[in-house]
Write a structure and sequence with these properties.
This protein is an alpha/beta fold. It has a single domain, classed as Rossmann fold (3-Layer(aba) Sandwich). The chain is built from 10 helices and 5 strands. About 30% of the residues are buried. Bound molecules: adenosine monophosphate. Adenosine monophosphate binds next to helix 2 and helix 3.
């Protein structure tokens, strides 16, 4: 399976680019944020719990998120591979993902980081807020909190994969098409 972690801070373009990778490589896009938002819409118990963290820009607890991720992966029969978007966000999640994939005779092939500087991220998130209707994009304090959480808890996950020689960075600034081309090149180089 071609399992890729698409990594980067909020607003780096992970969701947008994932869609394009799905089209090209026939992979399954798995965004924990999207699954949480679906649950919020459906007013499930999980949705209520997730919302209480998401609206504040905090991470949903690891145990809940890891269980959710596993059950999402197991929904698919014989997948070509996954693009994990927004997961793992902590070292504990990364370890749990490795352990889980090993159980199903699979592994992460590569983490690809989209590199975008902070000023650009804030501009993108403010713009996205106008269209997405996402509560967590609309409030500058929540945006700052998400960036801070990313720096403190999520950015170190890069080292987890770098230590396994499974990390690369792609320039995440430019037109959407240019960034997609860079990602295609990066992924083609893995095969
Ligand atoms: P995203 O759509 O990836 O920007 O995620 C939106 C929000 O969902 C985050 O700010 C977190 O509150 C929550 N979330 C998504 N993925 C995770 C994760 N892997 N671990 C913890 N919280 C998550």
């Amino acid at each position: 399976m071609l399992n890729i972690v698409l990594f980067g801070p909020p607003g780096a373009g992970k969701g947008t680019q994932s869609q394009r990778l799905v089209d090209k490589y026939g992979l399954i896009h798995l965004s924990t944020g999207d699954v949480f938002r679906k649950n919020i819409k459906g007013e499930t118990e999980l949705g209520v719990l997730a919302k209480s963290y998401m609206d504040k820009g905090q991470l949903v607890p690891d145990d809940v998120t890891i269980d959710l991720l596993k059950s999402e992966v197991l929904k698919y029969d014989n997948p070509k591979g996954f693009i994990f978007d927004g997961f793992p966000r902590t070292n504990a999640q990364a370890q749990a993902l490795d352990d889980f994939l090993a159980e199903i005779n699979s592994s992460i092939v590569q983490m690809i980081s989209l590199d975008v500087e902070e000023g650009e991220l804030k501009l993108r998130l403010a713009n996205r807020a106008k269209e997405s209707g996402r509560v967590d994009d609309a409030n500058p304090e929540v945006i700052q909190k998400r960036i801070n959480v990313y720096r403190a808890e999520t950015a170190p996950v890069k080292d987890f994969y770098a230590e396994q020689n499974k990390w690369m960075m792609v320039d995440g600034v430019g037109s959407i098409e240019d960034i997609t081309e860079r990602l295609f090149k990066a992924i083609d180089s893995l095969k």
